[in-house]
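Can anyone check this?
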Amino acid sequence: MSAGAPFGPPVPDEEDLYRAITHPSWWKAPEGRPSSAAFAYPKFSVDIASLTTAERTLDRVRHIARNPGLVEFHCGAAREFGFDSRAEPDEKYPENEAHAHVYCSLGKSQRKRRAQALAQSCAVVAEPAFD
């Protein structure tokens, strides 16, 4: 996945963001929380919570995982960790007005440490169930 450059307007710091948990490596089942792997990409997709519902976000990703999870984090806190959230359309689902990308231009090892901090700051909205 190419990170590209952010092009959309910044998501305000006071917004909360939903990150769908669609892969088993993105979930630490014994701890009941997301793993840093869900946030370790140079660019990843989220939904702006005030523009959608948890149910709509989960429904949009059921083609990836039958029983996905959902976590929520604060945009301002993510910025403190070095993540930049931008309201940008989803190429596959342009009707999703809540879509945003989160960017992290740090090197891989720094990004991994910051992703760990972000993962630990998340609130669990729905736990995934992977077969």
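Reply from J.R.: I decoded it. The first helix runs from residue 54 to 60.
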